[in-house]
Amino acid sequence: MPDTIPTAAPKPASRDPGTARFDVVVVGAGFGGMYMLHCLRKLGFSARVYEAGGGVGGTWYWNRYPGARCDVESMQYSYSFDDALDQEWSWSEKYSPQPEILDYANHVADRYELRQDIQFDTRVTATTFDEATQRWSVETDQGDRVSAQFCVMAVGCLSAANRPDFAGIGDFQGQIYHTGEWPHEGVDLSGKRVAIIGTGSSAIQAIPIIAEQAKSLTVFQRSPSYTVPARNAKLDPEVEAAVKADYPEFRAKARMRPTGVYFLFNAESALDATPEEREQQYEESWVRGGLPFLGAYGDLLFEKEANDTIAEFARRKIRKTVKDPATATLLSPDNVFGCKRLCVDTGYYETYNQPHVRLVDVSKAPIEQIIRTGLVVNGEEHEVDVIICATGFAAMTGSFEKIKITGRDGLTLTKKWEAGPRTYLGLSTNGFPNFFMITGPGSPSVLASMIQSIEQHADWMVDCFAHMRDIGAKTIEPVLQDENDWVDHVNEVAKISLRSTCSSWYVGANIPGRPRVFMPYIGGFPIYVDRCNKVMDKGFEGFVIDGGEVRNAPPKIRNTERWHVPLKMDIISPAAIAAKRVPIV
Ligand code: N01
């Protein structure tokens, strides 16, 4: 079935597989690839974007499951590079539903005429650095063979679906879907007996909606998640007008927050408050809802004792909402609150009070087998018509693994990263010259506002490429020692947060056999941006630039000007980090 949204685009004109040469090839046309293309064009680089899907939008192109919506407020989950775009676009709700975000992505593609340089329905299969020409050779499943000086991976952090290989899965007579690869034509679940596997963010959004449609819904839970009510509503026109009155200033304030998202937070310690004060603070934050709940106190992700207080508050809410005590107990996590990515819901716990919804614990006895008619757990057969895998993603590195990426001396990226990803600033990796990644492992990425992170990376890269053009340089590559120092720093900073203590996709623990390494940079977005600025201002310190007439000369600041602002030390000073008072949500 074709898309309902007009994403069809003409194939780019020049499709000569033998000779096409570009300054830059970009892999992926999600928010990262789209903005990268826009920046490249602005500075006069030739570029080709390859996109496996039939349209732009990345995550929001693929994740069309019922209830999919963003849990960052709409007015912050959007591009910030053009105030005219900010002013002309209006979001309908506080938290945008997936179709509206996809509309926005399409609007951006049209507004900046991006489609002419994007080749859709084309998956990059291999990219290889050619030592002789110092260029990347890129191959696709459509037979393209092109070369580029730079290769930019804009493949997303959560885009390689995890489809567990359940025994007997091929025997099932009904339909099996993954939330991250949802059919574009939608799925009619009315009157169906539905099973959903997983209880992460995707499932928690989907379950209440599926329960409205299905005849019965059985949820197979391996571990419960903490979730906070979204309190979604129509976007208040007064809020919209207030933000739009000075959007750039609002964006600038957000960028100075550890997450790159602006919201109320309380830097005080939960342990300095009385139980009554804490209760009131949690209750007020719960009523406001959403991810900012985790900002109720400044030490919740640093002090286990403080975290215990919010975790117990959340468990009390579950017990109060879910009528069946056994189900309430099963739904109550006993680990650190916010250790795994906090979920945001609308009516999740209430759904379990409906007679046709059942929760099955698969923590001790896993799903044994899938049979023709359903699933078997602990010897019990659960007959269903549809199975939905809300089983998440091979996070951060999974999309890189799908492509054969070969750097110097035949080294593949998969081989280099077999014990965990290693990057310099999450931007680049030694042994892979002129190879860059947008929101790569080792950068704030999933712990910060994704679109802000994307913009900062693309702006940095394009200034780097322009500098290389200025000095006539051929290659740029991180120095191994600087990369090792950065990886050590990423690991060191991760230890200050309780987030490093549990089995989450942040550490690759959701999929058996993956190395356990805390992948995103948790030190805070502004500190990270400041570091990237300094690296650039010192002539790309920590990189080797080869072939240029002037080496490591200070670059001209072009796209990164808006990021080159003084770090406001009062909010996120290193001293605050040392005192473990950085609210990171
Ligand atoms: O994936 P997940 P997701 N047998 O990995 C379970 C973002 N996102 O798609 O916890 C049984 O969180 C697994 O169990 P366990 C957001 O960053 C954002 O829901 O590993 N169960 C878990 O319960 C989010 O964090 C938005 O024990 C199995 C579930 O499947 C990220 O995407 C919306 C299993 C997977 O949960 C990923 O979310 C949606 C097995 N073999 C997503 N394998 C918003 O903006 C896995 N599971 C709102």
Nearest-integer average pLDDT:
93
Named once each, the bound ligands are: 3-acetylpyridine adenine dinucleotide
Distance between the termini: 39 Å
Gyration radius, to the nearest Å? 24 Å
Helical residues, percent: 25-40%
- What's the total number of strands? 20
Q: Which residue ranges are poorly predicted, with pLDDT under 50 across at least 5 consecutive positions?
A: 1-10
Strand content: 15-25%
* Main pleated sheet: 8 strands, mixed
Structural class by SSE content? alpha/beta
> Total helix count?
18
Overall geometry: globular
Write up this protein:
It is a single chain. With about 575 residues, the protein is of the alpha/beta class. The strands form five sheets. Strands 1, 2, 3, 4, 5, 6, 17 and 18 form an eight-stranded mixed beta sheet that branches. The protein has 18 helices and 20 strands. Helix 1 packs parallel to helix 14 and helix 14 packs parallel to helix 16. Helices cover about 30% and strands about 15% of the residues. It binds 3-acetylpyridine adenine dinucleotide (N01). 3-acetylpyridine adenine dinucleotide binds near residues 205, 222, 367, 391 and 392.
Features:
disordered N terminus; five-stranded parallel sheet; 585 residues; alpha/beta; binds 3-acetylpyridine adenine dinucleotide; 30% helix
